[in-house]
Amino acid sequence: MTGHLVVPERSTIEAALRTEDLEEWLRLWCSSQGGTPRNRRFELMSAVLPFDPSQEIRVLDMCCGPGDLGRFIQRSFSRARIDCVDRDRFLLALCVELNRRRGITTRVFERDGWDPDWRLGLDQPYHVIAAATALHWFDVARLTALFCDFYDLLRPRGAFVFAEPAAPEPEFAPGFQQWAGEREAGCDIEGTAWAQFWNRANTLLGYNHQAVLKALPRKRSMIGDDGIPVLRYVELLHQAGFGRVDILLRETQCVTIAALKS
């Protein structure tokens, strides 16, 4: 319940999606998240996982959205058992329907990572926890706590992989931002696809779903689209207990990182 708005049950949304062109939904979502560069990150995150491809592994797709990252991992690990967590009921329903059409069995959990008990009932310990462009919806304090949760949820030698916005260190920020602005001037493909995706979702649902999600409770804040410096992520991972951390890929405004539980 949000104000006087009753958000439909996930089963109701899933039923509405069954007559939809889900590939078009997925195309818009992928474009809104960066398109081909995003997919290359997902391929990299799947490729580095230190497990035998024939092994049955347990995977937690954290803040999963429509479940793209989990599906990339499942391509490399056909016996992977994937749990998907997100607070967005619509995106979870889209995840369920996309996986159903592909014959992929996943469990989904409607949970808010801000809640201290968000991990209750999960199928721990996991071999892998993966997240992509979602953790910046938390502030640094909450992200620190989540990194500790992830460490606890992993089995020994388990891997945490994620891709998030990354900011330059303050001393380098002015020149970096000027360079990035010149490089990306006139390019708004992601913004256009984002608007198209959510306009379509709002039409299907009959209300402004995105506005509901953006209504953060009082005292919450978030890191935001600019991210934090790369070495700050590394520092927080070490504080959570992760021994080995690798910066897999540093792009203009995004970093892909892997961490191993000792």
The CATH C-level name is Alpha Beta
Number of domain modules: 1
- Per the CATH scheme, the topology name is Rossmann fold
> Mean pLDDT, nearest integer?
92
Order of helix and strand elements from N to C terminus = HHHEHEHEEHEHHHEHEE
The helix-and-strand class reads alpha/beta
Largest sheet: 8 strands, mixed
Helix-residue proportion: 40-55%
Write the layout of secondary structure elements.
Blueprint: H1 10-17, H2 22-32, H3 36-47, E1 58-62, H4 68-76, E2 81-86, H5 89-102, E3 106-110, E4 126-132, H6 140-153, E5 154-167, H7 173-183, H8 189-205, H9 209-214, E6 228-229, H10 230-240, E7 244-250, E8 254-260
Parallel strand pairs: 1-2, 1-4, 2-3, 4-5, 5-6
Antiparallel strand pairs: 5-8, 7-8
Helix pairs in contact: 1-5, 2-8, 3-4, 6-10
List key phrases describing it.
262 residues, alpha/beta, Rossmann fold, eight-stranded mixed sheet, 8 strands, 20% strand
Question: Quick recap of the structure?
Answer:
This protein is an alpha/beta fold and 262 residues long. The protein is 43% helix and 20% strand.
Describe the structure.
The protein is 43% helix and 20% strand. Strands 1, 2, 3, 4, 5, 6, 7 and 8 form an eight-stranded mixed β-sheet that branches. With 262 residues, the chain is of the alpha/beta class. Helix 1 packs across helix 5 (89-102). The longest helix has 17 residues, at 189-205. Strand 7 (244-250) and strand 8 form a beta hairpin. The chain has a single domain, classed as Rossmann fold (3-Layer(aba) Sandwich), CATH 3.40.50.
